[in-house]
TrEMBL record:
Protein's UniProt name: ATP synthase subunit C lysine N-methyltransferase
GO cellular component term of the entry, any: mitochondrion
SUPFAM superfamilies, alphabetized: S-adenosyl-L-methionine-dependent methyltransferases
Organism (species): Sus scrofa (Pig)
GO molecular function: protein-lysine N-methyltransferase activity
Main location: mitochondrion
One GO-annotated biological process of the protein: methylation
Membrane topology per record: Single-pass membrane protein
Encoding gene, per UniProt annotation: ATPSCKMT
Cited InterPro entries: FAM173A/B, SAM-dependent_MTases_sf
Entry's transmembrane regions: 43-62
Family the entry assigns: Belongs to the ANT/ATPSC lysine N-methyltransferase family.
Subcellular location: Mitochondrion membrane
Function, as annotated: Mitochondrial protein-lysine N-methyltransferase that trimethylates ATP synthase subunit C, ATP5MC1 and ATP5MC2. Trimethylation is required for proper incorporation of the C subunit into the ATP synthase complex and mitochondrial respiration. Promotes chronic pain. Involved in persistent inflammatory and neuropathic pain: methyltransferase activity in the mitochondria of sensory neurons promotes chronic pain via a pathway that depends on the production of reactive oxygen species (ROS) and on the engagement of spinal cord microglia.
Keywords: Membrane, Methyltransferase, Mitochondrion, S-adenosyl-L-methionine, Transferase, Transmembrane, Transmembrane helix
Length: 228
C-alpha cells in the first residue's frame, strides 16, 4: 500500500481479514468535532423530516374540512345536536323504507336511523368523516344497515330513498328543493334540520330554535302543495 500522506487517514491490513484505520500523528479523534458535526446533521435531517411529515399530515387532515367552505355553496361540518337527532327520529315514527342523510357528517343521523331499524345511507364529501362514520357504525353494531359513501350530494340521485334527511344551509335549499321534487317518489318524506325549505309546506314541525326539524311529504309538494 502507498504510504499515506501526513494529516490523512489511511488504511492498512493488520491481518488478512481485518482492515484497520491508520492514523497519523496529529490526527484528531473521530469522536471529536467531525463526529459531533455528523451527529448534528443527522438530528437536522430527522427534525426536518418530522416537521415536514407533521405538516403534510396536518394538510391532509385539514383540507377536507376546509374545502366545503371554499365551494360555491358553503356547507361546513356542523354535527346535529342530540335534541336534533331525537327530533329527526320522532319525525320518522311509523315510516318505513330506505333512508338517506345528505351530507352525513360523522354519521350520527344514519346510525340513529339504523338503530331504529332503517336501512340507512349517508353521502358525505369529506373522506375522513366517512371513514370515521364507518368505524362508529361498526362500534355501535349497525354496520350491516348503515352505509357511507364519499360522494358529492349534487351528483347523487335520491330517487330510491323513501326518507331523506338534510341538515343544510339556507343558500342551498332552493336548489335542493328542485332536485328532490324531480327525483323523489310520491310516498317519500323529507326532513330538514335547522333550516326549512323555502317553498314547501311542512306536514309537521317539531323542536325549537336550532333544534327545529321540519317534515315534508312528497305527495304534498309534488302534488302542488307548495307555498306561493
Ligand atoms: C351541517 S353538516 C351535517 C352533518 C350531519 N348530517 C349531521 O346532521 O350531523 C353538513 C355536512 O355536509 C358535508 N358536505 C358539504 N358539501 C357537501 C357535498 N357537496 N356533498 C356531500 N356532502 C357535503 C359537510 O362535509 C358536512 O359534513
Amino acid at each position: 500500500m502507498l504510504p499515506p500522506s501526513k494529516g490523512h487517514v489511511g488504511w492498512r491490513w493488520s491481518t488478512p481479514e481485518t482492515l484497520e484505520e491508520e492514523r497519523q500523528p496529529g490526527d484528531s479523534h473521530p469522536a471529536g468535532p467531525e463526529a459531533s458535526r455528523l451527529k448534528k446533521s443527522n438530528w437536522g435531517f430527522l427534525l426536518t423530516g418530522a416537521v415536514g411529515g407533521t405538516l403534510v399530515a396536518l394538510y391532509a387532515v385539514a383540507t377536507p374540512f376546509i374545502t366545503p367552505a371554499l365551494r360555491k355553496t358553503c356547507l361546513p361540518f356542523v354535527p346535529a345536536t342530540t335534541k336534533q337527532v331525537e327530533n329527526v327520529v320522532k319525525m320518522l315514527r311509523c315510516r318505513r323504507g330506505p333512508l338517506v342523510d345528505i351530507g352525513s357528517g360523522d354519521g350520527r343521523i344514519v346510525i340513529a336511523a339504523a338503530k331504529e331499524g332503517f336501512t340507512a345511507v349517508g353521502y358525505e364529501l369529506n373522506p375522513w368523516l366517512v371513514w370515521y362514520s364507518r368505524y362508529r357504525a361498526w362500534r355501535e353494531g349497525v354496520q350491516g344497515s348503515a352505509t357511507f359513501y364519499i360522494s358529492d350530494l349534487w351528483k347523487v340521485t335520491f330517487s330510491q330513498y323513501s326518507n331523506v334527511v338534510i341538515f343544510g344551509v339556507p343558500q342551498m335549499m332552493p336548489q335542493l328543493e328542485k332536485k328532490l321534487e324531480l327525483e323523489l317518489e310520491d310516498d317519500a318524506r323529507v326532513i330538514a334540520c335547522r333550516f326549512p325549505f323555502p317553498h314547501w309546506t311542512p306536514a309537521q314541525v317539531t323542536g325549537e330554535g336550532v333544534d327545529t326539524v321540519w317534515a315534508y311529504d312528497a305527495s304534498a309538494f309534488r302534488g302542488g302543495g307548495r307555498r306561493p
